[in-house]
Amino acid sequence: MPEARRAGERGPYAGGVARREAILDATVDMVAEVGYHGLSMRDVARRVGISHPGVIYHFPSKDVLLMSVIERYEERLNFKVSSLADMAPFEVFEAFIELANSLGNSQTIVEMECMLTVEASASVHPAHDHFAARFAGLQEVLTDAFTKLESQGMLNTVAQPRQLAYQLLAQWYGLQIQWLYATDEIPVNAVLTQTVLAALDFTKEGVLETVLASSFSSPEAIAIVQRSTGLSLSDMLQRGLLKLTHDNLKRYGLAEVPPEIIDKIVHSGILTSEDLAYAQDNRAFSIEFLGRMVVNGVLTTDEYTVLSDLGIVPAEAVAALTAVMAAGAMQAQPQK
């Protein structure tokens, strides 16, 4: 009888999985170094420290290897088109845009996506079925979401659900290519959000309220709503059209801020969608917004200290500004 395996000893299967992961990791690193076309299976084998046939055993071709990298990335993102099917329309759009951003976090993955998407259009390509299923699934989910909005009377008269779905997908893939040329200049969130909101008719009763009450009310969405309706963020907050709920505050990195401080900031009338966007990106208020709060006498020195302790504003800036206030060089206006 074979000797019993000692506790903690890995079997052949575990070793095979580990080797497969090592090959995928090496592939990602090497594509980043030498590019899609510069990658060879033999180089991957050398990087991992195994034979060329050892790589072929797990991945029969370069295309299969690269497709496996993308599939693993999607698994780590927990990306499943089927998971969007039961969501409310604005939840679908939010998830779609989040997916677009997540897949765009890695330049290497985007490069492989762009190359494989084109090459896999040939029906014999090993990745053809994967991308065909992704396109078809997203088209149906997005079409269904827009169709539901249409049935609720929320779309404008020229908007067509299926065409809007095609447009969103086309923008996503087009933005990926542009992002590779200018990674710091392509506002993927804003462009995709604009497409969704441009299809809505904000003159119809309840449309604005529905959008602002949904999880889709990101800083980008709020800024677009402002331009579409002429309402400022302060107007929306004070009319109760938009509420800074705990979920919203968590999104903006402000979940730990005491409600009474948030209430003062909201009622000050100086908070803008740009301030929220900065908070979302940086998990903090900007120095410029901090200065406006001080000038307008929004908070007390103790409340600024609370924000500093939470990391919402820099401690050094709070110390300097409150010192100026205490010295009387900057007179805060009375709170409203």
What does this structure look like?
By secondary structure, the protein is an all-alpha fold. Helix content is 65%, strand content 0%. It contains 18 helices and no strands. The chain has helices at residues 12-34, 41-48, 52-58, 62-77, 89-103, 107-119, 128-151, 161-181, 188-198, 207-213, 219-229, 233-238, 246-251, 259-268, 273-282, 287-295, 301-309, 315-327. Helix 1 (12-34) crosses helix 2 (41-48), helix 4 crosses helix 6 (107-119) and helix 11 (219-229) runs antiparallel to helix 15. The protein is flat. The N and C termini lie far apart (85 Å). The model is unreliable at 1-9 (pLDDT under 50).
Describe the protein's topology.
Layout: H1 12-34, H2 41-48, H3 52-58, H4 62-77, H5 89-103, H6 107-119, H7 128-151, H8 161-181, H9 188-198, H10 207-213, H11 219-229, H12 233-238, H13 246-251, H14 259-268, H15 273-282, H16 287-295, H17 301-309, H18 315-327
Helix pairs in contact: 1-2, 1-4, 1-6, 2-3, 4-6, 5-7, 5-9, 6-8, 7-8, 8-9, 9-11, 11-15, 16-18, 17-18
Mean pLDDT equals: 82
Q: Per DSSP, what share of the residues sits in E-state strands of 2 or more residues?
A: under 5%
Poorly predicted residue ranges: 1-9
Q: What is the ordering of alpha helices and beta strands? A: HHHHHHHHHHHHHHHHHH
Distance between the termini: 85 Å
Counted beta strands: 0
Structure characteristics:
flat; DNA-binding transcription factor activity; TetR/AcrR family transcriptional regulator; mainly alpha; 65% helix; 336 residues; transcription cis-regulatory region binding
